[in-house]
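Q: Structure for this?
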Amino acid sequence: MLFKYKTSDGLKLHRALPGEFLIPLVAAMTFLAALSIAGAYASQQLAQRWSAGAASTVILQIPMPNDPSPSNDKIASTLANQTKIQLVTALLSTSKELDSFHQMTDKEIDELLAPWLHESVQAFALPIPAVIELHLKNNPPLSETMQKSLRQIVPDISIEQSNFWNQRLNTLANSLQTSAFLALAIVISVAAAVIALATRTGLMQCRQTIEILHNLGASDFYIAFRFAKRSAYLACIGGAIGSFFSIPLLLFLTYLCLPFSSDPNWQSLSNASWFYFLITTPFQLFVLFIFLPICNYFIGWITTTGIVYVWLRNLT
Amino acid sequence: MIQLDGVSLNYKNDVTLLDNVDLHIPQGGFCWLTGPSGVGKSTLLRLLHLEKKSNTGLVTILDTPTNHARRSTICRLKQRIGIVYQDFRLIPNLTVFDNIALPLRLQNADETTVQRWTARILDWIGLEHKQYTYPKTLSGGEQQRVAIARAVIHRPDLLLADEPTNALDDYQVKRLMDLFYDLNDLGCTIIMATHNDALIRQFPATRLKLENGRLWVNNAV
């Protein structure tokens, strides 16, 4: 059991560890930590999206899709009356390595080419190939057997696999994530250093009283507990303030990240209210921000306890 | 029981304050500690209070060998020792009441006991009317009485007093000695450093004389 009347031991910790010094510094560190966490989360999400989206997608381009297949292959000859697109579609329908496939409509191709042509592609009477988007069940690339079968049916087919870019984008996302975690580790270290410095200053200020208390039989644990409690409390308050102020910035970053969102109507969201971003911000991030003050409490507690123990050992 | 076996203590590694000192004081002993100024009386008391470590030799305090004792053991031993410093060492931002109550509170005594015992000792030192004042507003004699009250409130097993009568008048000295004798009768070992030969003659007890790093023991007749 600890000394019950802690305000009567003369340590006066509200003077030795003043809140006006520690709280703003810890709040600033928490703000940076919140940004690092948000960055790590965003890069993780981006990596996942790339893996689930571009990585597992293969694009087939079939020139002159409505022409009969030029192949002399047995399969093609048995289906001589069928067009290239019909043959490819038939093959894809029986494939077990595909999750789904989608042939882009004329409208979709129009939209895709609109930035370059400014008009409907139909107006130019251009020989536009048929485009089929394949969603693979497993990771790319498309199996060699499947590629061979496709080339047998349509020798001039173009198969675009994005796994080359996906590997690089994943590496980039992982690098971003590592950088964010590194930044977080640095921020935590700086916060701990600030708390350690404040504790040391407080100890120096209370040196005479601590010496007297120690000589009267106060244990190291008692003195460390008193300092740790105060410092952890201030770190927690600083953490709460830092977390609170990071939320508007987080919403702003969510707004900036809209073009990368999976929502196809992102352009219409740019005029949405802040409240919309507040409710659509990932729940995990809010939970993390609630945990930040608690983490600060423990960082404050552990750092201060360590510093006080070391200081007391050097004192006597 | 207090025992020093071949204890040496150097000050700043060149001045020898204690040179191979042997000492045995049984539990319940009463000793005067004398010697010229600057000879190291206060340092010896600090050694016995476990604030300093000897360079060589074995130090046993209250039957506990302290040379390799854990910090928690030292802390518990200190709670059984009362000390009156020459410079009082009161905590400036605590009231007289809280300064005196500190040893009891550090031992987690219940607050009713703290209030009762502190009120009694405040009454005994005649400062009950100043219990809510701060040490800096007290005279030297009053501060010394507060320091004495703080040293004895928890009924220590060992009392170390460094010139505790310096700022007291004859009447207060007589009362202080009565208190120390009462504590001694209850089994408390007392070591009291003083320059006052008249006081030693008035209250005869074993005399420890510290000179040139050596400790001479003269038993009272």
